[in-house]
Amino acid sequence: MLEALSMDPAIPLPFEGVVIAAYPSSLTVAVSQLTRDIVSVVTPDAGDGPHRIVVPLPVPWVDDGEVLPLVGSPVRCSRTRLDIPGSPVAFRLGSASPWRPYPAEPSPTACAPDPSWLLPEVLAGSAAGFRKDPAKGNGLLASTGPRSDQRPPFSPDPAESAVCTRIAELAAQHAFDRGGAMPLVVRRLLGSGPGLTPAGDDFLVGFAFGLEYLGGREAEPRLRALRHALAAGIPDTGFVSGRFLSHCLAGRHPQHLLDLAAALASGDAARIARSAATVLATGSTSGRFTLMGIAASRGVMPCLS
After folding, report:
1. Distance separating alpha carbons of residues 153 and 99, to the nearest angstrom
2. Calpha distance 164→125 (Å, rounded)
3. pLDDT in tens, 141-180
4. Which end of the chain is more exposed for a tag (fewer CB within 10 A), N or C?
5. Pairing status of strand 52-54 against strand 155-156
6. Which contiguous run of DSSP H or E holds residue 2?
7. Same domain, yes or no: 88 and 220
8. How many Å separate Cα 9 from the centre of its chain?
9. 80 plus 222 within the same structural domain
10. What's the DSSP call for residue 96?
11. CA distances from 33 to 12, 14, 53, 73, 252 (A)
């Protein structure tokens, strides 16, 4: 049995649940309690965050590069250990360090007016709608098999390209700059795109985070309007993404986003680049769309074709 490295002390223990998604870097568990929630069991590169348990590599749910077929499996978690019965997945929790979010503070004045630090592949061309190469294990299910020779390492996903089109249309209407347009932004993007956390939702998380941590006081009216629209719209997206958005609205952000805010405040270019790269590597396209949302909060839009 392996020792968990860290965990969010806000996770309600004990709990029972079921695995609803399995990736090389994470297991997502739906908690079957009266107040339903999710818990994510993640690798160190995914990092700490709300309702996450960080465990060491190699993870027992990946065997010879293949993710075990655990979706639908029951999960039992006591105050001292987490088990998936019938599988090799078991972790002791007693020595896990409690996650204490890095105390990054929102900037009182607008920060990073030219966020070119968001990496060329985020800000250039239609790469924003491209999916990472599954051969490199970047967030796609390991069991999806090898990439087809007919597809390049970065190939456009039609559903994500449609989200990019919506973002570009909203930018052309200057919707991201107006508090009164936040309901329109949420209606157009919430729940749009494939996956447990659709690309439109990832963009909205980044946009909200950027307004809160980088926008300064001048962004507060837009942030209030965005939070109000998101709170009303959460039932319109999926269960998992809705829980992530709820954490965002409560100011409970993943550590990698807080690290990026702290890096920006430091002005250290190398630290900023490292933090942005960590966010970019999140999931299949989640990090890319989150960074796009952060850029949009500062008035910089990718050239989406």
Report:
1. 35
2. 11
3. 222 223 233 333 344 477 788 898 899 899 999 999 999 9
4. N
5. unpaired
6. strand 2-3
7. no
8. 20
9. no
10. P
11. 10, 10, 18, 16, 21
Summarised one tens digit per residue, pLDDT across range 229-240 is 999 999 999 989
Residue 85 lies in a domain: yes
Please give the pLDDT value at position 185: 97
Helix and strand totals (H; E) in the chain: 9, 14
Question: What pLDDT does residue 226 have?
Answer: 97
- Residue-range definition of the domain harbouring residue 82: 2-98
24 and 123 share a domain?
A: no
Length of the chain: 305
DSSP state of 154: S
Do 292 and 156 belong together in one domain?
yes
Q: Long-range CB contacts (< 8 A, 24+ apart) of 108-114?
A: 108/216, 108/217, 109/216, 109/217, 110/214, 110/215, 110/216, 110/218, 110/219, 110/298, 111/213, 111/214, 111/215, 111/216, 111/264, 111/265, 111/298, 112/214, 112/264, 112/298, 113/298, 113/299, 114/300
Please check whether residues 187 and 275 belong to one and the same domain: yes
With beta carbons less than 8 A apart as the criterion, state whether 60 and 140 touch.
Answer: no
Q: How far apart are CA 44 and CA 46, in angstroms?
A: 5
- Residue that finishes a domain, picked among 64, 98, 132: 98
Assess if residue 29 is contained within a domain.
yes
54 occurs within a structural domain: yes
**What pLDDT band is residue 109 in, cutting at 50, 70 and 90?**
low
On whether both 65 and 126 belong to a single domain, the answer is: no
Q: What 3-state DSSP class applies to 18?
A: strand
> How many Å apart are CA 223 and CA 215, to the nearest integer?
9
DSSP 109-131: S---SS-GGG-HHHHSGGGGGEE
Q: Are 18 and 73 in contact (CB under 8 A)?
A: yes
Q: Which residue matches tokens 């709608």?
A: 129
* DSSP code, position 134: G
> Is there a single domain that holds both residue 44 and residue 144?
no
